Every structure is written in C-alpha cells, then in structure tokens.
Amino acid sequence: MDFAIGEDRQMLSDTMSRYLAKNFDWEKRLKVIETEAGFDRAMWNELAELGVLGALFPEDAGGFGGTAFDIGVVFAEVGRAIATGPFLDTLLAGRLLAAAGESDVLESVIGGEKIVTLAHQPAYDAETGEESDVTASGSGENWTLDGAKGVVGYLGAANLIVVTSGDKAFLLEAGGEGVSVSDYRMVDGGSGGELKLSGAPARLLSGVDAETIAGNEAAGVVALSWEGVAVMDQLRDQTLEYMRTRKQFGVPIGKFQALQHRMATLALEIEQARSSSINAAAHFDKPERDRFAAAAKYTLGRVGNLAAEEAIQIHGGIGMTWELPLSHYAKRMVMLGHMLGDEDEHLSRYIELLRAA
Amino acid sequence: MNLEYTPEEEAFREEVRAFLKEKLPARLSTKVREGKNLTKADMEEWHAILNEKGWLAPHWPEKYGGTNWSVMQKFIFETETATAHAPRVVPFGLSMLAPVLIKYGTEEQCQHYLPRILDGTDWWCQGYSEPGAGSDLASLKCAAVREGDHYIVNGQKTWTTLGQHADWIFCLVRTDSSGKKQEGISFLLIDMETPGIEVRPIKLLDGDEEVNEVFFTDVKVPVENLVGEENKGWTYAKYLLTYERTNIAGIGASMAALEQLKHIARTTKKNGTLLIEDPLFAQRLARLEIDLENMKTTNLRVLDAAGKGGAPVAESSMLKIRGTEIRQEIGGLMRRAAGRYAQPFVAESMEEGYNGAPIGPEWTGPVSSQYFNNRKLSIFGGSNEVQREIITKAILEL
User: Fold this and answer.
1) Among the four residues A187, A243, A279, B164, which has the most C-beta atoms within 10 Å?
2) Nearest-CA neighbor of A200 among A132, A145, A139?
C-alpha cells in the first residue's frame, strides 16, 4: 500500500500551486470572473506551457501523464485556487480526441493554441418542455448534426467543440456552418453556453464508442472529486482560522463546544470524501470503476453541501459577503455538485450497480 | 381539540381571497412568483393597497389601525397572501419597531410614528448588529452621549437590510459602559437625514446589494427620540426580536414555495423521469412536506398559547430554527430540481421586463441565487445557534 502521489506528480503539483498563487491571486480572480469568458486566456497558455494540460493525457496521445492520479493532482490544484478555465472540458473532450487518434488536434489543445469543450448533456427545449439532444445523420466522411446541448462549459471561448450523439462523438469548429452558440456566466464564475446545431457538418471521431463515453464520465468524476476535496479543505481551514480569531462573548468562537463538535464532524466527513476520491482514482482502470465513481460523486455532493453550508453558517453574515473568498469557495463547492450528475443521480446509479452485482 | 376552520374563519378566508383577487396587481404577483427583484416602489405600492383596506398592520391594536384579528385569522391572512404571491410586507417599521413603541413608547411617540409607518411616510431600518457585536449583540459599542437636549452618536452598524431606502433607523446604542453590558443599552430613533450618517452597501455572494453598513459620526439626536428609559434598551430589543423571529419563520412563504416545488416535481423530467417519480427526490419532498405540516401546527399552538398569555419568547426561537431550516430546504430542493441548469447565472434576468431567452426551464433562473441568499435565514435575527442557547436556558433550564 502506498498513499504517496509520487515525485513527478508532486513536482507538477508544486509548480501549479506556485504559479496560481503568484498569477491568480484574489484580486485577479475577482476581475477574471467579471469577464465574459470567465477565465484568463493568457494564463491558460502559460498553464499549458507549464505542462498542466499535458499531464491530463498519456504519452501516446501527446501528453505525459493521463492516469487517474495525474488527473486528480491537477484538479486538486484547480480546486485549491478555485481557478476558472476549461480544465474539465479539456480533459473530457481531449480524451475523446485521443481515443479517435486525433493527435494533431489534441496537440493544439495541449499546447494551449486551441480551446476545446465537450457538448455532452442534452439541452432543455422551452417549446416542448422536454430535453432535446443531438442527432447525427450521414456516413463515412459526411456527417451532419442537428439538435441542442445544454450547459456546455466555456462554450463561448471554444474554438473546437466535441459533440456526443448516442454512442458516437463528433468534432466541429465553433463558428462553422449550422453552429449557433449562446453563452452566459456561471454562478461560481466561469462561463457556459447553450449549443444549437442545424445541419452542422461534423467529423466523426471514429474509435469512440459507448465504453469510451462511459469511461469519460468516470474520468470527469475523478477530476471533480479531487477538485471538490481541495475546495472542502479550504472551506474547513478558512473556517477554523475564523474560529480562532473571531471573538464573541469575550472568547474566540472556536472555544464553543457546539461549534467545535460541528467542525469535528465536518473534518471527519472531509476525510471520508478524500477517501472516496482516492477510491475513484484507484479503481479507474479496474472493473469496479463505475461503482467507485458513483460513490465518489455521491459523497462529493453530500459532504460538499455540508462543508459549504457549515462554513457560511459558522462565519455568520461575513461568510455571505462577496469580498470574502470563502463565499466563492462555497459557491464553487455547491456547483461542483451539479456537474456530471448530482448526489441523488449517483446514489441511484450506485443502487443500480448494487442490484446488478 | 379541533383543527378545522370555523364557518367564520372559512368566511374570512373567502374574504381575503376575494380581496387578493381584486386588489393584488398581477404585475407584482408575477414578479414575486418568478423571483424577480422587487423595487422600493413595488413594496410601497403593496403597502398602500393593504393600508387602504386597513390590513397593513393586523397585529397592532385597533386604535392605531390594527384589526383585532384572532391568531387563526392572522394565520389565514399570512398564508393566503403568501400563496397568492403577494410581496412580503417590509417588517422593519410594521412588525419590529411598532410593537416596541406600542408597548414601551409614549403615547406621543405612537401618535407621531405609527401613522407615518402606515401611510408610507417613513421607511424604517434596523440598527442592531455591529462588526464586533453579532451573536454577542449586547457587546455593542455604538455610543450615544447625552449633551443637553441631544445625544451625540458615534459608531457603526452593519447588515442593515434595505437601509439604502430608509428614512429612519431604530438603533441600539451604548449609553453606559460602567456595569453589565446589557444594562447600558438604549433604544434610539434616528432620522437618516441627520448630518454625519453614511450608508455603504455590502455586496453579497449572490451579487445582491440588499444589506448595508451605516456609519455615525457626531450625529445629533434629540432626546425625545429615546424609546422608554435610558439603559433599559436591552429589554425592548429582546421584545422586538421575538417578533422578528416569528416573522422570519415564514410559514406562509414556505407553504407557497412548497406548492411551487411540488408543481415543478410533477412537471420536470430528469434523465427522462419526472422528479416526483424519482424515489430519492420524492423522499426529500415528502420529508419536507411532513415537517412543514408539523410546523404549521406547532406555529399555531405557540401563537395560541401566546395569545392567551402574552408574546412567545423562547418558543419563538423554536419557530425560528425550524422555520428557517424548512425555508432553506425548499430552496435546496429547488436547486437540486434544476440539475445542471442551476449553474447559469444571468443577473439581468432578475429584473422586471428582461426579454432574453430563458436558459433551461424558466423557473431555474433565480434558484441558485435564492439558495445562497437564503443562507442568511439561519444567521440573522439571532443565529440558529443563539436560538438553541435560548431554548437550552429558557425552556430546558439547563
């Protein structure tokens, strides 16, 4: 048994941590999240140069990492700084590009020249009140896509869009024929958008199948759970710091047993969440991948909510202010719960797998 | 024991419904239902409509413009107005200051201030919390020093909700630092136009600016603006808080919000299944409804007992805790129901007349903002931790 992350990954983690501490301080983040794109394009290129994006992909895809633990380490740093940018979108779209052997395209993504996103989840259609997804028609080299995708990360900034349709995936260019994008900001900073396609010509990513897409969802859960645990750590530490310094009734509020016990419970729950994120990474290449992914995302949602709500509550009014970083960590924490299926969806998934076993 | 409405109460409910149907402007109820931001003018418009009917201050004595309604009538009115999506009545003057003036103020003060609250002349805000005095409210430092016919006020208040609209502020000020901290507090009424007052907005995590800091620098306040006796303000402050807490419990608002949530659960699909058919979501919804049904009766029991024997004190802490937990849980379930569409944030869509295409189901627009904004419910009016302290001491006698 070995819980050390390894020397190379430690170096990557340190490099990323130093870079973000220096280049993505609090003032910077507040400015960046007010911009339309919700992230800093120049910073993205610098992170690419540091190898952050390369670490998400294996050597045969033009990267130098790509294991679940490599992914985890990168996303833990994203969480620690609540950095905005298409990290998850790059990971998920990039893995499908890699599966299809699109090495030239992926190289431009890993190098930071091109921004790619993954349009996977269906959109809500206001006219029918139902979900509406993308259908593909064609064969060989000639495919066109119709339909819609919803809440696509950093859609407005993307040059390239990987679109799923059933067990197939396609690549198309933003701004191409039949592609329409409406983008917006997100609650926790960053941006997203709704994608509409009407007869949009697209390239089939051959080699992608249902299993690739399922594996991709599990990779996304590994990323989010490592990011989430890092956010929880911040929420806990910032709250403990406040409990040590904020005085009421003549003593630091950390002296009150009622609050002490709540923080003890939270600390325990966060360790459980950390274990769930390690489990998800450790089983990523194993038959029980999906069970541990569901467990991790369920735990992330449940404990994340607790961490966000307790951190704000124990801070009191100040925990609800824009100027305090804590409130932004809390928002990110809660929103991580909404990505790639929430707590209930993953608990249901777990129950299905339990029944099938 | 009988929980049925009497024929008189049924008739009263019909009367309230008829009034709302005729007088509640559709423009306002639509804004409330869609979670849009209400302007000062919106709130004043609704106050004026209620005042014309004589229903703006049901809990006041009749001689000042109250209604002499029973506990059940007040409950019916609260729930009917909330389920009709009427704007909330702004509580600072009507439900917080007024009960204090009526119980502890002079007849002259009542005659002067109460009509101005009713007709909208004065918009009040609350000067309680300070940066160093939150849960430990009695440690407040904002000082009032008597000089001839005036007090000179120096210090700071914070979390002053809607202070940006206010003409007046009721303040807890320190008039004596020599003894126990609770025994040197006075209750002072201050005109916001007085020189030396500065209001600065505080931006909250949902981007909203509804609370403020208020700074006082050598602010001259006439001594006749003191309520009750000097250094007895803590008693009045606590009395006011029992009203504030009962109000924050917001049973009517929860009933209205739960109806909306149930409608959403019956009409919204997630991964192809209606939310109401999803056993996990349905379980959350059922627990919430059970808790709210229990709460409705707890609320009536407490108010009934209080009606016979005075204002609820420690019991208002129970109502505040569970009432705010329910309100927060409803917001939490709305957010969960929105799924991935809880993430987009279009600030402009919170304003009336926004014409942009909705993103996701229309009701999802404000859900995350409301969820985060609702964190305040368990913090203000005395945090829920402070309420538990009150229950521990005053009811459990531990």
Assistant:
1) A187
2) A145
A298-303: average pLDDT: 98
Give yes or no for a contact between A207 and A59, defined as CB atoms under 8 angstroms apart: no
Q: How many residues does chain A have?
A: 357
Cα(A205)–Cα(B293) distance, integer angstroms: 54
From residue A200, how far is each of A104, A195, A249, B220 by CA, in Å? 22, 11, 65, 71
Sign of the alpha-carbon torsion through B275, B279, B283, B286: positive
pLDDT band at B306 (very low <50, low <70, confident <90, very high): confident
Q: B299 near B249, Cβ under 8 Å?
A: yes
**Percentage with pLDDT > 90 across chain A:** 95
Q: Are A158 and A86 in contact (CB under 8 A)?
A: yes
Tokens of A5: 């992350």
Q: Which of B139, B362, B379 sits opposite A317 (nearest CB)?
A: B379
Chain A partners within 8 Å of B361 (Cβ): 124, 126, 129
CA pair distance A222, A75, nearest whole angstrom:
9
Provide DSSP, B50-79. HHHHT-S-TTS-GGGT-----HHHHHHHHH
In DSSP terms, B124 is beta-bridged to B168
**A210-245 and A68-80 are packed helices; what angle lies between their axes, rounded to 10 degrees?**
40
Report which residue type is found at A87. F
Distance (Å, whole) CA B343 – CA A336: 9
Residue B311 has pLDDT above 70, yes or no: no
- Yes or no: say if B381 and B245 are a contact pair by the CB < 8 Å rule: yes
User: Cα–Cα distance between A280 and B291 in angstroms, integer?
Assistant: 36
What pLDDT score was predicted for residue B83? 94
Please provide the DSSP assignment of A314-355 as one string: HHGGGGGBTTSHHHHHHHHHHHHHHTTS-HHHHHHHHHHHHH
Cβ distance of B205 and A322 shorter than 8 Å = yes
Question: Within an 8 Å CB–CB cutoff, is residue B146 touching chain A?
Answer: no
| pLDDT single digits (tens) A324-342 | 999 999 999 999 999 999 9
- Collapsed DSSP state (helix, strand, coil) of residue A171: strand
Q: Report CB contact under 8 Å: B135, A130.
A: no
Which structure tokens are listed for B125? 């805000």
How many C-beta atoms surround the C-beta of residue B23 within 10 A? 14
3-state secondary structure of B206: coil
Which chain A residues are within 8 Å of B379, Cβ to Cβ? 312-313, 316-317, 319-320
Kind of pairing between the strands at B124-127 and B168-174:
parallel
Assess contact for A184 and B345: CB atoms under 8 A: yes
**SS3 of chain B: helix, strand, coil, percent, to 5:** 55, 15, 30
Chain A residues with CB-CB distance to B346 below 8 A: 184-185
Query: Which of the 8 DSSP states describes residue A113?
Result: S
Q: State CA A325 to chain mean position distance.
A: 19
CB atoms within 10 A of CB B179: 9
CA atoms within 13 A on the CB side of A331: 32
Closest CA to A212 of A59, A107, A101, A78: A101
Residue A261 Cα, gap to closest chain B Cα (Å): 13
- CB neighbours of residue B38 within 10 Å: 16
> Which chain B residue shows the shortest CA-CA distance from A306?
B332
Cα separations (Å) of B300 from B246, B251, B319, B390? 11, 10, 10, 20
Task: Specify which residues A210 forms β-bridges with.
Answer: none
